[in-house]
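Worked problem 6 (solution included).
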Amino acid sequence: MENGQSQAPPAPSSPVKASILTPGPFRSPKSRVVYSDRLIPSRAATSRLDYSLLEREAAAEAGRPRQSLDPGADPGADPGSSAGAYAQLLRSQLLGCPPPSPDRASGGGAAGAGAGLAPRSPTRSPARKLFRYMAGDAETPLSGVPPASPYARGTLGGEDLAAATPGLASPARPLRRIPRAPFKVLDAPGLSDDFYLNLVDWSSANTLAVGLASAVYLWSALTSKVTLLVDLGPDRMVTSVGWSGRGSYLAVGVDDGQVQIWDVAKATNGSRDAGILLRDPRAPPPFSVRLSAHRSEVCGLRWAHDGRSLASGGNDNLLCVWDARWSGSGGGGSPTPPAGATAPASNPSRPLRRWTDHSAAVKALAWSPHAHGVLASGGGSADRTIRLWNAGTGSCLQTVDTGSQVCCLAWAKNANELVSTHGYSQNQVVVWRYPAMTKLATLTGHTLRVLYLALSPDGQTVVTGAGDETLRFWNVFPEARGKGAAGPAGGVGAHLHASIR
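Solution. The predicted structure is:
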């Protein structure tokens, strides 16, 4: 009490002031976001935590140009590189933040680069608290990313991530580019336009043998040197040539039924008399075993890579597989049937498999080097199909209608791919991917049927021959893994256009 006056008791607080002093969060009528002074964890999978440190880094990044992590990269290069994609991936997987839309992610300048890293919420002052809890309003009580199960598996590297974040998905493997033009052309005057002949073969020693009319020429792929091996004279014609496995010996077939073996160790030939002769020069003449199953001329023969099976195709539309272990040894030995064979031991000339599915002559034959017992066959102009067979079970694996006569087939050595040459009416060369049998490339250039095909020793180059009297070299297959490239020609001579004679 002072100056004789008593002090009146304080008036009770008004209800408004009492409500202000009551503990609780402050709610602004102009804001829908409620802030608290401490972190309140939420078990809801749709709630979100925003970190102001990320906002500071995003604001700082938006104000200066981005630099590549690669020391040799261009400083002015596009900032939307692997570092930005990695940051987006981390935010998507760890914080549950959806990635920016393609329009925002592809924005130009520093703003576009900052948009890829900026949080979804607006950038705030760095002076605010480190952690901030954000809650929704009455209409949207939960904020953040769309509802998701807290036990859901992450989409790191999955298909969902690739669909939702195109910029973060792994880049598709680029398709191998196959040149559409030959890198070398050889003139081959006298190369016959006859579907039933086999006049081109490439040895493992990188020498190409070509039958031209009555002569056989050897062309070295390393030196481009041409050598005349034999000239049979004007009254005889070469019908087939074939190298031995090591490339040291060559067998030459003649139109009168004669087979000339030039330092060969073993040879097989078929003829117009519908017979197949297995010849072994080490055995007493005239031959080891005669195989008879075709009713018309034999136009296709191919040994399997293990040397145990022989495939034959004929003009009677018949395809056969023979077991070489039935042929006996030494000319007079008794044939021993292989385990599991169904043919009686008294009839060694009976084929192991016999298929009549083709509706035209079967000349094109090729054994797969990647799958044991897989055989590819092609039919003539009335059939136009490529058929894949399992010689072990006898089943047809696949049939592909090519739309034109199938003349030759060959498997790639370094990839599970197949090349085919065709005649009427497109005269094309087609590269296929097995087992889907999808076309990888269609090569054109020959003006007549592509009747001859051979594969280089390195497995990268194929040579095709046609009745237009040209040999064309194509670089179609990949190189072997772990080996350096031998140049675009794969070891073939560098002259683009030359003559085989």
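Discussion: Residues 46-67+79-164 form one domain.
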